Amino acid sequence: MRNRLCLSGLLGFLLGFQSWGFGATLEVSITPKFSGQNIQPASLRYHTAAGESFSFTRVSYLLSDFALQRADGSWLEFADSAAWFDFARNRDSFRLENIPSGDFRSVRFSLGLGTNLNHADVAQFPAGHPLNPNVNGLHWSWQGGYVFLALEGLWRNAAGQFDGWAYHLARDTNCTRVTLAAPLEISNETRIEMDFDLASLLLSFARDGSSSHSRDGDAIAASLVANLPGAFRVQRVSTILHEAIAAAPPKPLYLPAQFTPYPFKTGATFPMPDLPRDNPLTVERVALGEDLFHETSLSRDGSISCASCHKANAAFSDPRRFSAGVRNQLGVRHAMPLLNLAWKHEFFWDGRAPSLRAQTLMPIQDHAEMDESLKNGAAKLAARTRYSAAFQAAFGSTEITPEKISLALEQFLLTLTSFDSKFDRAMRGAEKMSAEEKRGFQLFSTEYDPRRGQFGADCFHCHGGMLFQSQTFANNGLDVKFADMGRAKVTGKDSDRGKFAVPSLRNVELTGPYMHDGRFARLEEVVAHYCTGVKRSATLDPNLAKHPNGGVPLTETDQKALVAFLKTLTDESLRPSRQGQLSRNP
Fold first, then answer.
1. What is the pLDDT of residue 349?
2. Among candidate residues 345, 346, 302, the one with its CA nearest the CA of residue 325
3. Lowest mean pLDDT: which of 132-146, 292-306, 356-370, 505-519?
4. What is the C-alpha to C-alpha distance for residues 137 and 466, in angstroms, rounded to an integer?
5. How far is it, in rounded angstroms, from Cα 2 to Cα 420?
6. Cα separation of 494 and 55, whole Å?
7. Where does 239-382 have alpha helices with state H?
8. Averaged pLDDT score across all residues of the chain
9. For residues 220 and 169, what is the distance between their CA atoms, to the nearest angstrom?
10. Quick one: which of 197, 229, 569 has its CA closest to 418?
11. Distances from the Cα of 394 to the Cα of 375, 407, 409, angstroms
12. Preceding peptide of 513 cis, ω within 30°
């Protein structure tokens, strides 16, 4: 088995910029606009030249190869520099460090990536790097390279129905250079503020098409490339008067004098995860976290533990539609699997937990789950001699606190990785997929776009990359009216109604029933939903809304092939007959 070892706490946030040994800084800030006005998210207030009303739900793009033109006409180039901008995630600026002070007259960059960066081994990029696929969500994985620009939203067609639109610009030949006149006097810290006006990029969805994937002869991609250089404008250059103070790296919490580092294992092609630097993995804490995961005394009546609802023989999910808490109270959502959490950014179906550490304590306190106070839970552990010794080994003290409980649980959960499926072995040439499985993979990774002769299942937009997930929340067309508001419960935004976390498809064969409410018992039902059952609403994901009513019309044969492919994502060590062989074992 090929895998990669990562040592927690040893990787810094590398920015990918070359250092020249000078001292000045240039901050580049870019604001997406439409006809000169700031964009309002998920609002059908915009109109194409053809009069079609539409919204923006995603504006995400990569810039690279920054350069500054000196007064003599020569260029100061920042080799292999790269930045990721994303409207929804408030990624609107980046910094070029260590620039020689002086006068410059122009700024240059590329929207997209040159060949070397576009086809680099993504596993090399540190956790905070803008080209780490788990950061930007723009890597095409098996199709090769990155999506340079992703513009998505909904539009209202002639029948008054919501359709989706998605313009995705990619491929080496579409990397577009932009040069802007910008007199700059750089000393200490300087900021250049730009606008990225999207009005000139959008065509008529009805006439020209609502989807672009940059294939050869794609007229929408050609139009984007032609219009991009004129979409950027410099608005202002200013001096930042304060000195930037670098944040001190977090110190490890309660690290004992003696400990054993835990070798975190990950797939050779997986992006680097952002492991907590204040909680570096140790054998002692992982072992304690595993004990706590199975500890029933953390529930009010001692009847259940975390493992009661996240069963190892179901890929750490629950084979029941709804889990039973204390007093046999049923929950309202299906228990999510707990694998590859090291790559997730937000937790639970609605993303209400901003970190894995915060997530670990919520079920303990939830009245419908374990229904215990953190104070009582810690006191019950302290009354047992073996836990005093375990906390001493893990934290250098016998004191048991809710914080330490969360740190230990976080570590155990981080080690639950899965990366050795039939698909992985086939990708590295160690096994072969059947003809049906190969057909399923082709469907999975091909868009559905009859206008351009593409008839795939279009799964990869939401479940792309080696993790087969995204970091987003989406309405996948389960309902027109929502009994469960999903993400909107957390954000309070109407535009998030009916949206839930997009889960990983790894081990999906073992994690049924499916969807946030477990409404589908079998994978075949899930695939059928995306073929005939997708329901339209104002928050339907654009990559589903752009398809015909009901979904992507796959034949029964192709639906079977897609299910066959999904089953190749199963890690055999997780099957009930092979428990105890998880990759977390050091």
1. 97
2. 302
3. 132-146
4. 11
5. 8
6. 14
7. 283-293, 306-309, 356-365, 374-382
8. 91
9. 9
10. 569
11. 20, 10, 12
12. yes
pLDDT of residue 252: 95
Helix axes 283-293, 385-395, angle to 10 degrees: 140
CB contact at 8 A, 483 and 471: no
Report how far residue 64's alpha carbon sits from residue 426's, in angstroms, rounded to the nearest whole number.
Answer: 33
H helical segments located in 445-551: 460-463, 488-491, 523-528, 542-545
* Tally of CB atoms within 10 A around 395: 24
CA 261 to chain centre: 28
The CB density around residue 110, as the number of other CB atoms within 10 Å, is 21
The pLDDT, as a whole number, for residue 19 is 36
Bridge partners (DSSP) listed for residue 178: 109
* pLDDT exceeds 60 at position 17: no
Burial (CB < 10 A; 0-12, 13-18, 19+), residue 12, is: exposed
Cβ atoms of 181 and 224 within 8 Å: the answer is no
- Could you tell me if 122 and 267 are in contact, meaning their C-beta atoms sit under 8 angstroms apart? no
Residue pair 175/112 in contact by the 8 Å Cβ criterion: yes
Q: Which two tokens stand for residue 33?
A: 């606009």
- Whether the per-residue pLDDT at 6 is higher than 70: the answer is no
Report in angstroms the alpha-carbon separations of 381 from 250, 255, 316, 451. 28, 20, 24, 63
Of 572, 499, 532, 503, the closest CA to residue 41 belongs to: 499
Integer-rounded Cα Rg, in Å, for the chain is: 25
User: H or E segment at 439?
Assistant: helix 435-444
pLDDT in tens, 513-559: 999 999 999 999 999 999 999 999 999 999 999 999 999 999 999 99
The single residue listed with the structure tokens 């103070």 is 245
How far is the C-alpha of 213 from the C-alpha of 306, rounded, in Å? 43
- Per-residue pLDDT tens for 139-178? 987 777 999 999 999 999 888 888 999 999 999 999 999 9
Q: How far is CA 433 from CA 424, 426, 446, 569, in A?
A: 10, 6, 18, 11
CA 272 – CA 526 distance, rounded (Å):
30
pLDDT of residue 243: 52
E strands, 171-295, are: 176-186, 189-197, 211-212, 232-239, 264-267
Give the residue from 83, 85, 88, 84 showing the smallest Cα distance to 39. Answer: 88
Q: What phi-psi label fits residue 214: left (phi over 0), alpha (psi between -120 and 50 degrees) or beta?
A: left
* Tokens describing residue 558: 């192709």
- Range with the poorest average pLDDT among 203-207, 304-308, 314-318, 512-516: 203-207
What is the Cα–Cα distance from 451 to 363, expressed in whole angstroms? 48
Rounded to an integer, the average pLDDT of 431-439 is: 98
N-to-C CA span, the chain: 14
